């Protein structure tokens, strides 16, 4: 327990780490307590798509900072990226009455609620704050956007981002912000679409506080001596530690066709582990 990172005050929980624990506590341990990484086992195609997604995030960051996007022909996914960046610029013409804060990180620690949120973009307007999150399209562009939107609305990411922003809004705008003045959007560049829009409320905030506390306390109280691999077997095929645990390789051909997996894979979480 002395060297168990979970109990250090500087160890912050993210949406990815909580979600990883729920899939498998051992996976959480390997990724977040021992710092082992995906990258070495990711397939070439997934790696290419991760790189294109990362490039889009980098260019969007530079666009909102008002500096050169550094977009050149040799870049991975040039054609897709040029369409996506044009879509971004058209959808988000920057205006003088808003403050744009791209790639913004907020942290909080209140008892066991030790959380970190990494926002793609915060937009501060007179009426409140908007959270924007970029979702770059996967291989299967025909995915049902309505279902994807519903899934995003109820996701752990929405919960963590909205909760942390409300708790720490003072650090962003030097004043308290009412829940009713916080909104979150998931946006994709192709086809251009707001996949989900969430208006925050006081009731949601209290519900999220209890849910996140319960989840984090569950992680802190978990006894690794009781770990039973059989309980998590359905997640092994999608897990980078499949070789370590089961002497089996991840079947990338299968997972690359699985939109649920790709949604949950979350390119940001891979980036986070680099
Ligand atoms: S391979 Fe299975 S048991 Fe091992 S860490 Fe991954 S999900 Fe858990």
Automatic annotation (TrEMBL):
Record-annotated PD-(D/E)XK endonuclease-like domain positions: 106-246
GO biological process, alphabetically ordered: DNA repair
GO molecular function: ATP binding; DNA binding; helicase activity; hydrolase activity
Keywords: ATP-binding, DNA damage, DNA repair, DNA-binding, Helicase, Hydrolase, Nucleotide-binding
Keyword match Nucleotide-binding: yes
UniProt keyword DNA-binding, yes or no: yes
A Pfam match: PDDEXK_1
The protein's name: PD-(D/E)XK nuclease family protein
Species of the source: Acetivibrio mesophilus
Lineage start: Bacteria, Bacillati, Bacillota, Clostridia, Eubacteriales
């Amino acid at each position: 327990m002395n060297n168990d990172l979970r109990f250090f005050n500087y160890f912050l929980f993210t949406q990815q780490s909580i979600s990883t624990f729920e899939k498998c506590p051992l996976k959480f341990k390997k990724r977040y307590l021992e710092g082992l990484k995906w990258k070495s086992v990711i397939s070439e195609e997934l790696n290419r798509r991760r790189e294109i997604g990362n490039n889009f995030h980098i260019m969007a960051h530079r666009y909102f900072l008002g500096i050169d996007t550094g977009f050149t022909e040799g870049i991975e996914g040039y054609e897709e990226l040029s369409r996506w960046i044009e879509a971004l610029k058209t959808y988000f013409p920057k205006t003088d009455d808003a403050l744009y804060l791209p790639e913004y990180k907020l942290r909080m620690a209140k008892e066991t609620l030790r959380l970190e949120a990494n926002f793609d973009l915060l937009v501060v307007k007179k009426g409140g704050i908007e959270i924007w999150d970029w979702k770059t399209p996967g291989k299967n562009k025909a995915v049902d956007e309505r279902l994807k939107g519903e899934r995003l609305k109820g996701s752990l990411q929405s919960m963590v981002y909205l909760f942390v922003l409300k708790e720490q809004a003072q650090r962003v705008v030097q004043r308290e912000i009412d829940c009713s003045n916080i909104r979150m959007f998931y946006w994709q560049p192709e086809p251009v679409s707001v996949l989900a829009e969430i208006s925050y409320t006081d009731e949601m905030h209290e519900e999220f506080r209890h849910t996140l506390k319960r989840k984090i306390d569950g992680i802190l109280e978990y006894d690794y001596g009781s770990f039973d691999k059989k309980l998590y077997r359905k997640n092994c095929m999608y897990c980078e530690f499949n070789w370590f645990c089961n002497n089996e390789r991840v079947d990338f051909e299968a997972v690359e066709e699985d939109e649920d997996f790709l949604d949950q894979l979350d390119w940001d979480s891979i980036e986070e582990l680099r």
